[in-house]
Amino acid sequence: MTLRLFDTATRSVRDFVPRDLGHASIYLCGATVQGEPHIGHVRSGVAFDVLRRWLLARDVDVAFVRNVTDIDDKILRKAGEHGRPWWEWAATYERAFDDAYRRLGVLPPSVEPRATGHVTQMVEMMERLIERGHAYASNGNVYFDVLSDPQYGFLSGHRIDDVHQGESAGEGKRDPRDFTLWKAAKPGEPSWPTPWGPGRPGWHIECSAMAVYYLGSTFDIHCGGMDLVFPHHENEVAQARCAGDDFARYWLHNGWVTLGGEKMSKSLGNVLSIPNVLQRVRAQELRYYLGSAHYRSMLEYSPEALDEGAAAYRRIESFVTRVSTRAGAVEIGVRPEAFERALDDDLAVPAALAEIHGAVREGNTALEAGKLDTARDIAGAVRAMTSVLGVDPLDPHWAAGATSSAPALGALDVLVRADLERRQQARAEKNWAVADEVRDRLAAAGVAVTDTPDGPEWSLEADK
Question: Could you tell me which NCBIfam families the record lists for this protein (predicted)?
Answer without folding.
Answer: cysS
